[in-house]
Amino acid sequence: MKARLYILNGDIGIELQNLAAIEKEDILISSDEISSYAIKYNPIDSDAECNVSKNVSYIIKGKIISKVKDTQKKNSDFLLDNTEFDSSWSKIPQRYYDDVRKLVTNTYSGLNLSTDSLNDNVAKLNSRNLIKLKYWMNAFFKVPERTAILELIKNGYTELHVLENAYTYLLEEKGTTDEGNGEFNLIIKQKKKIDKKYIVSIS
In angstroms, what is the C-alpha Rg of the chain? Predict the structure, then answer.
C-alpha cells in the first residue's frame, strides 16, 4: 500500500501577498517519505481546537531521509509514472485535481530520475518538505485556506481523503546524530467549520 500527501495553498489573496515565497509553495509528501498513516475521527467537541465541527485528523509518520536503500529504489515514488491519476480524482472538485497535477509536475520537473541520482533528489526534496511544513505551521494566521489530500493506494484501489481548511497541529522530528537517520511525526487537523468532506474509493 502506498500513501501520498498533497498540501495545497489555494488562491493567494491580496491580503496574503506579503507571504514569503516558501510559504506560498504547495507540498507533496511522497510515498518514499511516509512510513505509516492514520485517519482519526472523534465525536464533535464544542471545546475542540479552533472551533472545528468534526474532529478529523491525519496522523502521519514519515522518514527523514539521508539515503535511499538499494532495495527501495525500484519501487520509489520518484521512478514511477506519477503524472497520471485514475478516475477517483474526477470525483473531487476540479480545482483540487488541477492543483495536484500541477504540483506533481512541478515537483518532478527537471529531476534526473535515475537510480544513480535518486538518493540526492529524494534527500533534497525531503529536506525541503520538512522546511515547508515548519513554515506552514508558523504561518497559522497568515494561510487560512490550505487543503490536505491524503491519497491511498490499496490493492489496486485509490482512496482519496480531502481535509479542507487544514492546519499543522503537531510537527516533531526525531533523529540519530551518528547515523543521520530520523523520522518525523505530523498531525493535521481542520482549522474551522466546513460542510463538505470528500472520500472517494474507486479502482
Answer: 17
Contact 147, 7 (CB under 8 A): yes
Query: What pTM was estimated for this model as a whole?
Result: 0.83
Q: Name the residue among 7, 36, 38, 34 with its Cα closest to residue 23.
A: 7
Q: In the numeric block, which cell numbers belong to residue 16? A: 496574503
CA pair distance 91, 22, nearest whole angstrom: 30
Cα separation of 104 and 125, whole Å? Answer: 12
Summarised one tens digit per residue, pLDDT across range 3-58 is: 999 999 866 554 556 677 777 789 999 888 999 999 988 766 555 555 545 578 89
| Other Cβ atoms within 10 Å of 77 Cβ, number | 18
145 contacts 165 by C-beta, under 8 angstroms: yes
Q: Phi and psi for 79 in degrees, rounded to 5?
A: -105, 0
Task: Label residues 33-68 b or e (16+ Cβ within 10 Å = b).
Answer: bbeebeeeeeeeeeeeeeebebebbbbbebbbbeeb
